[in-house]
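Weekend entry, working from home. Most of the wet-lab plans are on hold until the incubator is repaired, so I used the time to fold the two sequences that have been sitting in the queue since the last round of cloning. Logging both here for the record. First:
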Amino acid sequence: MNRYLIPRRITQRWEILPGWGWRELGAAGAGLGIGAVLLLLSLLLPAGGGWGIAGRTLLVLLPAGCGAGLAMPMPTGGSMLDMLLDARAYGRTRHLYLYDLGRDDV
């Protein structure tokens, strides 16, 4: 009987840049949309809210960067958003604490 290697399944992921796929692009686009809404709201304030061009640019680009940062994959395999959702789920579950009342070193 001949032995041969069975190839494992390769999952392909479309990427714009290394680590940037559809999910990250969507998160950055949603952040840009939120930034555009914030920019329009700042323009409704009297005298443009007193912000210069640098403040308005930051107002648009900061939500986009936060959205992309939440969706970017980390070295552990998940994203920051996945980690935050896991931490929230862990905080909402019941925990069992084991106390040893006979120990003196406490």
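Second, folded right after the first finished:
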Amino acid sequence: MIGQNGIGILLVVIWALLEGIAQVFLKKSVLGAVHWYLWIFFGVVILLIEKMIYSEALLFLNVGAAYAIGSLNLISVTFMSRCFLREKVTRRRWIGVCLIFIGVGLVAART
């Protein structure tokens, strides 16, 4: 069974994934996509939903831990921009992503 901290961590992970999706939608809106206003609309809706999820996570985690674990959004945005927008990600950035992942793991383990 997941404890209180586990629920909070899960909510922050969901928040981070939604952040990646929202950022891809907003980027698509400026790339000359057809129906750009729909990309903006859905991006903003996802941003609002993710803020509600993050606020809920704060019921289970202290702000310092939630904010540190929230760094997963940087990883989410990197992966999604690479996969869905075909943006180039340098080796140095992948190393940074790995270091962020390790740091988040350390914070989550101590929560």
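Plan for Monday: verify the second prediction. The mean pLDDT is 93.
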